[in-house]
Every structure is written in structure tokens, then in C-alpha cells.
Amino acid sequence: MRKKIVAGNWKMNKNFEEGMALTSEVVNMVKDEVSADKVTVILIPPFIHVHAVAALAKGSPVLAGAQNCHQEVKGAYTGEVSAEMIKSCGATHIILGHSERRMYNGETNALLATKVNVVLATGLTAIYCCGETIEQRNAGKHFEVIESQVKEGLFHLSAAQMKQVVIAYEPVWAIGTGVTASTAQAQEVHAFIRKLLTDRYGKETAESICILYGGSVKPDNAAELFSQQDIDGGLIGGAALQSRSFVDIAKAC
Ligand code: PEP
Questions:
Q1: Which of 10, 170, 219, 240 could staple 248 via S-S, CB 3.0–4.6 A?
Q2: Which ligand 1 atom minimizes the distance to the CA of 214?
Q3: Domains and CATH numbers, the chain
């Protein structure tokens, strides 16, 4: 039985004060309202808040993560942040390959494969994102796109390493648009990803890996999405910027 995950990606939102207020609210609400046995809640702020978010959440079931890291361990990479630095700030998870980074920063599957390596070698969990654009879906190419994202970014890993990865399926056309994939569309892709994992790693490993859905998840659609056999929670953008809606999504698990 996979434990569900609800992770809030703040993107480039919230100044320090706002981020601390949101963290405190979420931590208090989660303590009172969310069963820690059922769902892992993760706050994923901008880098500069990670240490403080992790410190505020310490001792609670809420975890902290980061939205990206550099592929090298350390060195002369001005403006970059390493997985080890993120870990030393108290974070446990790092998002890799969010569609905004693929789009605006030219991140490729090959680059992401190297980032996955560094995250896992640091002992953190990678939340590896995949998902098709609307043009790719309309052309009937979505399975092909997702297959190459998953295979090229992840399938060099051993089964043991793969168990340190969470996959997030985020159709690009559903991110921040208010348009959610239908439950059937989302489950179809999640089952497809699970089948890829089964073919490569076997049933036991494939069944242990969490596959999150992301794309306009809100409190009123979360329960139905999360009730699907292969949907193990959500990566939440807009609705994670408000404590009430984010915690309500966690409660929908
Ligand atoms: C995201 O960017 O990961 C995301 C899912 O955003 P939203 O929930 O706002 O669609």
C-alpha cells in the first residue's frame, strides 16, 4: 500500500514573511486535521526560504523540499544551488524537470538524468516531472512523449535507486490553467507510467513508486483524482499558496 503524498510547489511566490506565515498555518492545520499515516505533506518554497520552512516544520509531519538543483556537486557555478546545500538546509525532496524549467531553462531529459543522480547520491528523494503539451496530446503523441521523458530521465537507475524517486505526471495544458485532466485521462496516463515501471523494474518495485498528478488540483477535484488506483497524491501549484485550500487537498487523500 503506497502512502499518498501532497506536495505544494510555491514556484516564485511568497516573500519571506508570507512564506513563514503560510508554513506556520499549514503545520498547525496538518497537526490537527491530517492523518500523518495516510499522507505525507511537503512544502516546496523558493530556495531562499527552504532552511526556515524546514526549521518551522521540524517536529511536525510536514517536510520541506526544493524546486530544482544543479547537476554538479559543487564548484564555480555562480547563482546555482547544489543538492547537498539543499539537504543541509533540512529538505528531503527536490523537484526535477518541472515543465516550467523544461520550457524556460531548456532542461532536457539527458540533463535531468544527471540531476536525478546527484539528488539520489545526496540521499534525497527526487520528484521527477513529466507531461505533454496540448499540441502533443492533440497529435496523439502524449504516451510517446511521457515514455521518453520517463525512460531517458530515469531508466538508467537501479531498482533500489528508483525507489527513491517519486514521479509527477503534470500535463502542461493543465498547469495553472484551471483545466484539470479528467479523472479518466489522468488515471490512463498513470497506469501507463506504472506499466513502463513494471516492464523495466518488475511489479514489486513498480507498485512501490508514488505517481503524483499535477495540474489545477483544487479541494473540489482532489478526492476524485486521488481515489484512482494509480494516482498517489498531487503536486499542487496555485492551490498550495493558501493554507486552507492546500490542507483541504491533503485531507482529500
Ligand atoms: C505545478 O506547477 O506543478 C502545478 C500543478 O500548478 P497548478 O496546480 O497551479 O496547476
A1: 219
A2: 5
A3: 4-251 (3.20.20.70)
